[in-house]
Structure formats: structure tokens, C-alpha cells
Amino acid sequence: LNFEQVTFIKSAAKLSQCPEDKGREVAFAGRSNAGKSSALNALTGSKKLARTSKTPGRTQLINFFALSETYRLVDLPGYGYAKVPEAVKAEWQKHLEDYLQNRDSLIGIILLMDIRHPLKEFDQIMLEWAEYYQKPVHILLTKSDKLKFGAAKQAALKIQRELKPFGNLVSLQLFSSLNKMGVDELKKQLSTWLLDEKIINV
Ligand code: GDP
């Protein structure tokens, strides 16, 4: 898989506007400011992808990118952005759950959390949905460069303990877009999911 070869497909406000539900895709989710755009930049080696997602009007949409005809990366709307009315938040939440519940080609979720502010309400909601709909989650503890390596390791262990109830469904790693720590590990996780021969929905 060449993660540098991503091309924008389309944006969708709801499930019915998503590309055809075939092939495989991995979705990136996180609270606003968790470092999702920076991580996508670090992964793809280009600012193009994240810039597309941050185009005004697209930040609240599900943005689809193609790695090939079969494989996609999906940038989910950053949650908790600005001071949007409760009704708007509820609407996003509905579309997001609808997507997680019904999208067969979605085979895994990358959940980004600032290592200094893990497991906030949105993260808990995502984890509960993922468990309910049986979609595996791989967590990136972002901005790990903000802590000394030992402290980052300690934080990761503590979070891992809190995630024990989810068993094998949830894994995690340290990540930093600043010094590129964890980029190769992320690529490995994405390849494992996307190329898994046990999944036969392609
Ligand atoms: P998004 O809202 O989740 O897309 O977050 P961004 O990628 O825009 O990042 C939010 C802020 O965190 C920006 O000021 C980034 O420069 C900063 N940031 C993102 N990733 C890192 C990182 O790995 N290390 C450090 N130190 N700062 C980061």
C-alpha cells in the first residue's frame, strides 16, 4: 500500500451520500484538536488530504480518500468543534452512528486522542459504538513528544489498563506527527486491516 498516493473522492453529510459500499475502508476519528489533520499529513506525506478536509464547509462532513480502487481512508468530522448548538451536535452524532452501524466496508477505526487528555466523553462514545457494532479500534496517543518518553510509556500503560474491558477489539500506540514517532506502526496497522485475507467482503 502506498499511503502517499491518496486522492480525494468526495464528501458526504450522511450515509446515502457516501461512495458505494464496496472494497474496504479505515476511518479516522477524534475530538477537534486531537491532531487528526497532522497525523493524516504525517501518514500521507502531504498536506493535501488534511487541507481538503479542513476546507470550510467540509469540516462537518465525512471525507473519503482513495488509496486504490479497493482501499479508502475516511476522515470523520472532528467532534466538539467550536460552539455548535446542541441540535447540530445531535445531528452529527446521528450521522456518525449511522455510518458506523451500516457501513459494511468499514473494517477499522483509528481513534486519535491527545496523550495528555485521553478518554474524554467523545472517545468513550466512539469506543462504546465500536464495541456494539464490533468494529476494531486502534488508538493513536497523539502529541507524545509533549511528554518525556518514560512518562509517555507510563501514560500509555495506564490507558491500556482502562481499556482492558474491550479486550482484543482495542489496541493503542504512541504517536507524534512532530517527530514522526509511530508512523510506521500506524502504516503496519492499516496494512494489516486493509490487506487481511480473512475478510472476504471485497
Ligand atoms: P485536528 O483538529 O484533530 O485536525 O488537529 P490538528 O492536526 O489541526 O492539530 C491541532 C494542534 O495540535 C495544532 O496546533 C498542531 O500543530 C498540534 N499538533 C498536532 N500534532 C502534534 C504533535 O504530534 N506534536 C505536537 N507537539 N503538536 C501537535
Automatic annotation (TrEMBL):
A Pfam family hit: MMR_HSR1
Cofactor(s) recorded for this entry are: Mg(2+)
The EngB-type G domain covers 22-196
Organism lineage string: Bacteria, Pseudomonadati, Pseudomonadota, Gammaproteobacteria, Oceanospirillales
InterPro entries noted in UniProt: G_ENGB_dom, GTP-bd, GTP-bd_ribosome_bio_YsxC, P-loop_NTPase
Q: Does the keyword Cell cycle apply?
A: yes
Q: What does this protein do?
A: Necessary for normal cell division and for the maintenance of normal septation.
Origin: domain of life: Bacteria
Biological source species: Zooshikella harenae
Leader sequence residues:
none
What the entry lists under Gene3D superfamilies is as follows: P-loop containing nucleotide triphosphate hydrolases
Q: Which protein, by its recorded name, is this?
A: Probable GTP-binding protein EngB
- Which UniProt key words apply to this protein? Cell cycle, Cell division, GTP-binding, Magnesium, Metal-binding, Nucleotide-binding, Septation
* Family that this chain belongs to: Belongs to the TRAFAC class TrmE-Era-EngA-EngB-Septin-like GTPase superfamily. EngB GTPase family.
Query: HAMAP family, from UniProt?
Result: GTPase_EngB
